[in-house]
Amino acid sequence: MICHGQWMPVLMMVAVHFGFATVNVFLKKIIDKGLNHLVIVAYRQSISVVFLAPIVYFRERKNRPKLTIHILCQLFFSALIGLTLTQYFLLRGLEYTSATFLCAFLNTVPVITFLLALPFGLEKVNVNGLAGKVKVLGTVVCVGGAVLLTLYKGKLIPNPHLQATNYNVTSHAKMMISSKKTERWIIGSIFLIVGCTTWSSWFLMQARIGKRFPCQYSSTTIISFFGAIQSAILSLIIERNLPGWVLKGKLESIGVIYCGMVGSGLCYVGMSWCVKKRGPVFTSAFSPLTQIVVAIFDFSVLRERIYLGSALGSILVIIGMYILLWGKSKEIEEFDQLKQGQAAQQDERCDAVSHSLSMISEGKISKRLERLS
């Protein structure tokens, strides 16, 4: 039973990131079919609301604090930054690149969050300590990997699935295609950087909201509701294309429902359970698994082209992220040890004071006995 309990969070995180990987693959296929990005976000968040509403009702209806106008405004802007704009920019980036490339950039989110938290005092770096040096090193390595992903494409990694369906083109045509793809790659990278930055800033906003409104399921449902409305309004303002809301074919219908239920529903519930059981550092450590699964799908099933720059940049990003997480866990251990040391010192002082008081009281009693005698 103990072994079963230890392995359950691991199995849960494997299932969660397999779900995220399939969601990213579905999104890539849906976007390639021409479905509007904001329409995807609106449908996905609407399905998420329907899925999470029963969980909110049964789990948090009794202990949920009162919703004030101030909290609702914070949740509205949290939805705008963390859902509507983030998913829009990430989906735009996915349109120009690939699902594997998207996942590689998502691994930079912990590092970007760390960098954004520094000016606000939410994170501190002690450069003289081991944990601080490790965090700085992880940040530098991860940022270097992101720069490599954006600026260096490199050679095409051989794919037997592509070679089987390859066709002959002239050298001029190859140069034109390569130049166009490089341009799309850079544009997609810019969208992904902006999307990862807005998502990182959402974590900082959500940390503040969580203190005032600690009900995570209710918070997520309200944010998803606001995100669906915002995406729908923005889509109608930018596109003004009502026929674009019609889902054509089984792939779009199944894909949107699956992304809403799994990506914004089941995976979130699974991650929340793992954070509660094993903590945020344990949960974050599994994030590269999504990229690995997506790369397998891209390379073997979808026959996407994977370049040397993407592979090297992804490796650097993952290494940098793990170094940062290790530094963060080391910092938490040092803080816990410091607290335990302070508690032990306080206990020793209390014992010394109580011992002194007992000695004084015993002395007073002995003096009284001497007087009586």
Alpha-beta content class: mainly alpha
Rg, rounded, reads 27 Å
Taken in chain order, the helices and strands follow as: HHHHHHHHHHHHH
Helix-residue proportion: over 70%
Main sheet: strands, sense, barrel: none
Please indicate the percent range of residues in DSSP E strands (runs of 2 or more): under 5%
Low-pLDDT segments, ≥5 res? 164-178
Globular, elongated, flat, extended or rod-shaped: what is the shape? globular
Tally of helical segments: 13
End-to-end CA span: 67 Å
Arithmetic mean pLDDT: 77
Number of strands: 0
What does this structure look like?
The chain is mostly helical. The chain is built from 13 helices and no strands. Helix 5 packs across helix 6. The radius of gyration is 27 Å and the shape is globular.
